[in-house]
Amino acid sequence: MFYSVKGILTHTEPAFAVVECGGVGFKCFTTLSTQRALPQIGEQVTLYTHLNVREDALDLFGFATMSELNCYKMLTGVSGVGPKVGLAILSELAPEQVAMAVATGDSKTLTRASGVGSKLAQRITLELRDKVKGMETSAAGFATAGIVSASTNAGAAVNALTVLGYSPTDAAALVARFDSTLPVEELIRLSLKSMGGPLK
Question: Model-level pTM greater than 0.70?
Answer without folding.
Answer: yes
